[in-house]
């Protein structure tokens, strides 16, 4: 694993020394928005009009951030309008790569490139920073629109509505402040909290991450005992952002990232809620459990130096959820 420096690949693991053993996630750098008419969005420049067939997603099925974008592509009827390439689950010294010798790994179906870092240097030959997925690519301008999943799902939520006729709204205007508040806690302590626990290189950094993580799961269990979804009766982006962490928790985070006070199956409401979301139309097809389990255990040499991929608990995501 590594990063690009002035367009050149440098093999280097996360630097936790300068932050007292803490894992600090860097900010995404491509921040343009697709809009219905191509005008500028909340950040970045204009010129990215919603058009069928123009955009492409590079994803990893293992990655919870990329997973959000696949879910929104499915929920919003965008599968015929936005194409996808999926990387190989193993992220090794050259970062994400496009080998096809694993079921579900498609290769780079646009350019036949070998590595995701080549997509970044194609967009910007002087790019410096991490090479992350998801990448939302514009085939027309041959550049990256966005590499920030939180913003990509908001574009997908509405920019293509006149093309698809799908007006389902997971980011309703009147709920935005309330959604933001819930997202902030879940992002910091849970979506990113599992990484902060798992990648911590001091006991203090681990302790500082893992306790707030379980406080949040306890809080969510209580909230979901009184509400069907996080914001009440209406399913919103907050639920989908939570879902991609919940579905990885028992098979990966519990053991690999040492988040082992409880499992999701130990929480009746969280576990039933995870199954309900999994069973919504189009969602199960976005979950590739083999890539999820393989990626983390095989790729993170500093945590799992022998790259042994453990047997998995059997979890029945199709069991009746009984909610509602
Ligand atoms: N802020 C980004 C984070 C994406 C991200 O960190 N993806 C991980 C995979 S789960 C990645 O590609 N990591 C490679 C690296 O950090 O070098 C987003 O949400 O889109």
From TrEMBL:
Swiss-Prot/TrEMBL keywords: Transferase
GO cellular component: cytoplasm
Coiled coil: none
Residues annotated for glutathione binding in this entry: 96, 130-133, 148-149
SUPFAM superfamilies tied to this protein: GST C-terminal domain-like (SSF47616), Thioredoxin-like (SSF52833)
GO molecular function, one term: glutathione transferase activity
Residues annotated as transmembrane: none
Top-level taxon: Bacteria
One Pfam family of this chain: GST_N_2
Span of domain GST C-terminal: 172-296
Active-site residues (renumbered): 63, 195
Gene3D superfamilies recorded: 1.20.1050.10, Glutaredoxin
Record site feature (Lowers pKa of active site Cys), residues: 253, 296
PANTHER family membership: GLUTATHIONE S-TRANSFERASE OMEGA-LIKE 1-RELATED, GLUTATHIONYL-HYDROQUINONE REDUCTASE
Protein name: Putative glutathione S-transferase
Protein species of origin: Shimia haliotis
Lineage, uppermost ranks: Bacteria, Pseudomonadati, Pseudomonadota, Alphaproteobacteria, Rhodobacterales
């Amino acid at each position: 694993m590594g990063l690009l420096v002035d367009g050149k690949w440098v093999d280097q693991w996360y630097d936790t020394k300068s932050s007292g053993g803490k894992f600090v996630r860097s900010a995404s750098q491509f921040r343009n928005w697709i809009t219905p008419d191509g005008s500028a969005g909340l950040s970045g420049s204009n010129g990215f009009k919603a058009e069928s067939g123009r955009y492409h997603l590079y994803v990893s099925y293992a990655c919870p951030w990329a997973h959000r974008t696949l879910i929104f592509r499915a929920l919003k009827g965008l599968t015929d309008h936005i194409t996808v390439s999926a990387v190989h689950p193993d992220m090794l010294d050259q970062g994400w790569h496009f080998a096809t010798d694993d079921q579900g790994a498609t290769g780079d179906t646009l350019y036949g490139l070998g590595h995701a870092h080549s997509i970044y240097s194609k967009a910007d030959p002087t790019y410096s920073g991490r090479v992350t997925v998801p990448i939302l690519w514009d085939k027309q301008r041959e550049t990256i629109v966005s590499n920030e999943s939180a913003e990509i799902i908001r574009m997908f939520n509405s920019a293509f509505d006149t093309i698809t006729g799908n007006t389902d709204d997971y980011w309703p205007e009147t709920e935005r402040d309330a959604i933001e508040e819930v997202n902030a806690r879940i992002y910091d302590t849970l979506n990113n909290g599992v990484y902060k626990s798992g990648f911590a290189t001091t006991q203090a950094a681990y302790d500082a991450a893992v306790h707030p993580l379980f406080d949040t799961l306890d809080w969510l269990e209580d909230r979901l005992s009184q509400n069907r979804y996080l914001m009440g009766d209406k399913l919103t982006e907050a639920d989908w952002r939570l879902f991609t962490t919940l579905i990885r928790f028992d098979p990966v985070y519990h053991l690999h990232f040492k988040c082992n006070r409880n499992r999701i199956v130990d929480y009746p409401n969280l576990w039933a809620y995870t199954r309900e979301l999994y069973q919504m139309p189009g969602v199960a097809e976005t979950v590739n459990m083999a890539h999820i389990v393989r990626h983390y255990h095989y790729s993170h040499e500093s945590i799992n130096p022998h790259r042994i991929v453990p047997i998995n608990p059997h979890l029945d995501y199709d069991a009746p959820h009984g909610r509602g």
